[in-house]
Amino acid sequence: MRPLAADDPRRIGAYRLLGRLGRGAMGAVYLGRSPGGRPVAVKVVRGELAEDPTFRERFRREVASARAVGGFWTAVVVDADTEAERPWLATEYVAGPNLHEAVTRHGPLPEPAVRMLTAGLAEALSAIHAAGLVHRDLKPGNVLLGVDGPRVIDFGISRAMEGASLTMTGVFFGTPGFFSPEQTTGEEIGPASDVFSLAAVLVFAATGSSPFGEGHTTALLYRVVHTDPDLSRLSPGLRELLGPCLAKDPVARPTPAQLLAAVGDVGTAAREPTQWLPEQVTSLIAERTELLWAEPAMPAGTRVATAAAPAPADPQPPAAQAPRPPAERPLPPPPAQKPPTRLLTKVAEEPTPPAAPAPPPLPVAAAQAVGKAVGRARAKATARTAARNAAATAARRLDQALAEGTRFSGTRGGSVFFGVLGLVLAVTFAVAVRNGALSTGTPYGDVFEVLVVIGATYFALSGVVSLMRASSSPVELVLSPLGLTVLRGRRRRHLDWHQVTGLRIVGRGRKRWLVAWLADGVPPPGPLGSHRFPEYRGGICLYPLGQKRNRREVRRQARELHEALRWYARGSYDGSGSKL
């Protein structure tokens, strides 16, 4: 960490800045401290980017998406201000080196550490992808090593940089040697791109170099697309684990969940959290943690003296001291401590009763059985607690996403209008028939009167049905970074983005639907009262557009939904086949 320069800010939001951690293409990163004393990493956007409206809009959306990312191995976004003169965000601070620094200073990591690193980073990518994000710049510098495991940083903001006005044709956003072939060739980027970058990062952790070597950027770009990675320095187990992740075809790469399953349970590799890294790296983490907390957490507004405090003056002899005023007379000395009473002495002298004999030790088999039973009970209790906490966290995240997401809904105005109109016509015809205003006394007049009665009955039923529709809750659709949610009243059905393989707007005129195709193994959502999800060519009709609006309103909502799906759904939405 470097000290703050003259042009560096001293405070961002509520955070007092202590030093500069680094500087990149987006801006500077500072170490800050919250009013409560918690350390955070504060990233402040460069002034040139802050003046770009396109970047600001993308940055605002990406920060909202990043806040929805959970999981254990990501640096959580704790605060942000996207409307500031220079936008910023604050994340959890990890008092440890990044992977590039650790490997450069102390050499490659041993295989057990690489496997634990694989598990942590794969779990982090699963959480990032579940929030609808793609990291796009996973590299050793964006992996921090903590005492309890790795942390992935800078997720959710790379896409904002790609849309900035500073990104020009021929300029790649990313790190050569660590981004995927599809990033190099400018093709569509999805979660599989992060898997490729993850494998390249892990090869660096195990060998100290990129799987595509070193050299000029142009040479690295060519090797990533056209040559096979160099995995000769990996152990056979790591070569088998990471080789498929570096496939040129994104479809051939495993998902983070599959990679996590392949690496297996690494929890038993280190019984203590500090044992997962080499001793030199662990010592570096401990040193930085000690330095971090050695800096006092001063309250806001406190000034730090720059000059040393003067040494205390030598005490003057008693004769030179000024006479003490009466109000400052010294207090009388405290009374002497009373000696112990006879009762206490007697009790103290009584012999201590002998301790009860220890119970005989359990046999080894019995002790092992008891230990296993206690362990199973604790494991079940821990699993139940973790499940409850996970469910509560997921519910809170979904509620927040619903509040901040883009909402589409129908209208009740048309149903109310036609309901009232139908009842008015029915009453009018009924009164006319009752008063004989339509009777002509001829056979044709009687037939006409019967037809009027039938029409009045039809209008009455239509009016009642329309008013019943107006009184019921409309079907709503909310798009958020977590996924898409269909609501009706208090009921809701939610689908994460990774559960959806395709989306399309189908139909014409006023009858249009948003159709979703689900991933294998994902059950279709249940009905929302009377609203059901009919099948359509292997998918399900998820949301009816317009809901009885006129054609112009339906077309407008289709266009708005199209733009929202292009942003939130990304790779899942087929805009070319949608009916707008």
Automatic annotation (TrEMBL):
<feature type="binding site">
    <location>
        <position position="43"/>
    </location>
    <ligand>
        <name>ATP</name>
    </ligand>
</feature>
<dbReference type="InterPro" id="IPR011009">
    <property type="entry name" value="Kinase-like_dom_sf"/>
</dbReference>
<feature type="transmembrane region" description="Helical">
    <location>
        <begin position="416"/>
        <end position="435"/>
    </location>
</feature>
<keyword id="KW-0812">Transmembrane</keyword>
<dbReference type="InterPro" id="IPR008271">
    <property type="entry name" value="Ser/Thr_kinase_AS"/>
</dbReference>
<feature type="region of interest" description="Disordered">
    <location>
        <begin position="303"/>
        <end position="341"/>
    </location>
</feature>
<dbReference type="GO" id="GO:0004674">
    <property type="term" value="F:protein serine/threonine kinase activity"/>
</dbReference>
<keyword id="KW-0547">Nucleotide-binding</keyword>
<keyword id="KW-0067">ATP-binding</keyword>
<protein>
    <recommendedName>
        <fullName>Protein kinase domain-containing protein</fullName>
    </recommendedName>
</protein>
<feature type="transmembrane region" description="Helical">
    <location>
        <begin position="447"/>
        <end position="467"/>
    </location>
</feature>
<dbReference type="GO" id="GO:0005524">
    <property type="term" value="F:ATP binding"/>
</dbReference>
<dbReference type="Pfam" id="PF00069">
    <property type="entry name" value="Pkinase"/>
</dbReference>
<dbReference type="InterPro" id="IPR017441">
    <property type="entry name" value="Protein_kinase_ATP_BS"/>
</dbReference>
<feature type="compositionally biased region" description="Pro residues">
    <location>
        <begin position="312"/>
        <end position="338"/>
    </location>
</feature>
<keyword id="KW-0472">Membrane</keyword>
<dbReference type="InterPro" id="IPR000719">
    <property type="entry name" value="Prot_kinase_dom"/>
</dbReference>
<keyword id="KW-1133">Transmembrane helix</keyword>
<keyword id="KW-0418">Kinase</keyword>
<keyword id="KW-0808">Transferase</keyword>
<feature type="domain" description="Protein kinase">
    <location>
        <begin position="15"/>
        <end position="277"/>
    </location>
</feature>
